[in-house]
Design a protein that fits this description.
Two copies of one chain form a homodimer.
Chain A (H helix, E strand, L loop, with lengths): L4 E10 L19 E9 L4 E8 L4 H12 L7 H6 L1 H9 L12 H22 L3 H6 L3 H6 L12 H10 L4 H11 L1 E9 L5 H13 L4 E5 L4 H15 L4 E5 L6 H10 L7 E3 L7 H11 L5 E4 L6 H9 L5 E2 L8 H14 L13 H17 L7 E3 L12 E3 L2 E3 L12 H7 L5 H7 L2
Parallel strand pairs in A: 4-5, 4-10, 5-6, 6-7, 7-8, 8-9
Antiparallel strand pairs in A: 1-2, 2-3, 4-12, 11-12
Chain lengths: 437, 437
Amino acid sequence: MVHKIIKLAVTDVRFPTSLEQHGSDAMHRDPDYSAAYVVISTDVGLRGYGLTFTVGRGTEIVVCAVEALAGLVVGKSLEEIISDFRGFYRLLTSDGQMRWIGPEKGVIHLATAAVLNAVWDLWARAEGKPLWKLLVDMDPKQIVSCIDFRYITDALTEQEALDILMKAQEGKQQREDQMLKEGYPAYTTSCAWMGYSDQQLKQLCTDALNNGWTKFKMKVGADLEDDIRRCRLIRQMIGPDNTLMIDANQRWDVGEAIAWVSRLAEFRPLWIEEPTSPDDILGHAAISKALAPLGIRVATGEQCHNRVMFKQFLQASALQFVQIDSCRLGSVNENLAVLLMAHKFQVPVCPHAGGVGLCELVQHLILFDYICVSADLNNRMCEYVDHLHEHFTSPAVIRNACYMPPKDPGYSSEMLESSVHTHQYPEGDVWKTLLNK
Amino acid sequence: MVHKIIKLAVTDVRFPTSLEQHGSDAMHRDPDYSAAYVVISTDVGLRGYGLTFTVGRGTEIVVCAVEALAGLVVGKSLEEIISDFRGFYRLLTSDGQMRWIGPEKGVIHLATAAVLNAVWDLWARAEGKPLWKLLVDMDPKQIVSCIDFRYITDALTEQEALDILMKAQEGKQQREDQMLKEGYPAYTTSCAWMGYSDQQLKQLCTDALNNGWTKFKMKVGADLEDDIRRCRLIRQMIGPDNTLMIDANQRWDVGEAIAWVSRLAEFRPLWIEEPTSPDDILGHAAISKALAPLGIRVATGEQCHNRVMFKQFLQASALQFVQIDSCRLGSVNENLAVLLMAHKFQVPVCPHAGGVGLCELVQHLILFDYICVSADLNNRMCEYVDHLHEHFTSPAVIRNACYMPPKDPGYSSEMLESSVHTHQYPEGDVWKTLLNK
């Protein structure tokens, strides 16, 4: 059966999370978790759903970019796309005129992610499988054929990628069974957003511990004395044996990052996340080197805009945890490239999630990574944030602080029609009410 | 007098340059040189004009982004902005919601450039000076107060920037006089676009030589044998003593770049421009190292998206010519940071120009660089392309292959009303006619 794409629709969907300081950090004080939400329709009735995550204002710009890409998608069939997915990826990312406003970065790349996420969802639905299982069942050659190796062959060739995947065929079935039974380990960021009160933080830690969580991330970077106080509080709450990570959301310059984080070393954070500009590879390398003697490692990636940047972070030993993002990189295609490079450089992948739908999507990628690439759970965990899952038709399922593999066909990226309807910006009921206040 | 900004208007202006292959290269086969063109109006009648350059499709996305930024500008006075220009720059680039879709890269940063270019034009007009002269007459402290040093203090502190500017006060007046008399040296890219025939190329070289040009850039990277043939042809045309540069517009991977350019060494190019991804700092460093023994240097920058990237290119010795762009970096503010870093690292600046308005704008920056920062013309020249100047009210003036300093107040960024009107996309007459064909 041929699935011809006959329509692409995109919606600006926003949730007023800033009202309660959910998601607040040192650089994003008032995020309204949002998405450019894409629905592609085929002539046989099957649909694909995709999105990219944003934090409020500016979502309309990404929507505009999705509309600009739509002409490259509508009229093609799913079969045509997947028969040369590398070529289709490059069609979207290397349009001779549109690449000028990227290339492969910022708004246009976020839009590319939204569109391709919908295509991958469509593919998985057409096969009747959850996306992770579609990937797991794929021939290594076909996996590799989805990746654009342009600009990364000095770090990973097509043959090397193929070799990695072939080697990991061994034990694949056991790892799939293990995941279905136990799930993939997660950590929580829900307890310690910047804007939360101490009382709120304590209560959330207590609840999380009761629910079996053992790994906790908190936001730092606004005020050093306040960070020390909050680090002490959370370390007391979680005890000496649980894991603490800290996240500065790009707040510092290089020297400042080293000095500030050194002051927090007594609380034994596993990593400092986003200490400085997401573009500063050499800066992250300097910070990594300075903090290594303190036993603190560097994590980054949620705003690392493409595989060329990740390649250099790996080449320069500038990160010790790779935080892929399902909606900033160019969808599954580019994430595959990064997973394979991370494996070659032997750096663990700990995906970024949260926001709207990021947990739902990225769990598929990390399941594939474990089953078919890394075969390793050491120092690996996937972020989890407990917000907005109720708006999805197949919300992420957490059991004993682990992501349980999704079972529904697709990329878990479909939102409830009613949620989309009421949260459309600015015409949905939620916004009509808020904006008229 | 207070100049309160009461309106910001933005227009999608496109020129159908692809019809004649002007601007064609290995990655951009059919550019339609375009601009998101901004006009800000004040309550006292004075206006500021700014733009960012694009190459056709996607310009509407940048327009959308400018509209999203407009709310941060309208209602402010020019005096309020310039009294804390660093703060205003950060207001635009670090909005807690919009920075997510950047930060400081791609569409949102191009839009920032367009808006700030209009503010600088307004300022220069309010002072009755061409922009370069406004900068030259400014106190070093005020120059430095326009720069956001966030993320670059490990390479250049505010005090170091100030010291550079103070030191260059010596001889300033002589250099200004010299520029007014002789102009700033330029090179031409007009002779050898990828899509031109040999006949066209020969004729254009002959004409350029007759007009006094001594430095020529050609496009390479589509086909090696064809590059060899065309390099040979142009070297024969210009003779052994004139300067040849080659430009691959990001066509290659790292290893491929080294192999390909080595084959062109016999034609003695001064530099290879954009050999690979604009994001690949370490790749450019590897290419620089490999080509140095052949006497070929590496130039890049027209798609280097912000000061953090330029900082690393300099730290890693990844370029030997810094090609600033007036419309991709965050306007004059961010270009000042890059000029000062380039000086500290002792790497010559050779601006990117061409397109629509890039020559008009960037000449101001390089004049300031010579008079107030570098005090050096060795190995320095500004790109010139002979297209579309007729659409500006104060077009760039070339005499003896040199840019003559503009005399009209402002940033030379105002387009003729009639040009804007007829080239508006898609409703202008030019496009109505083309699109109905």
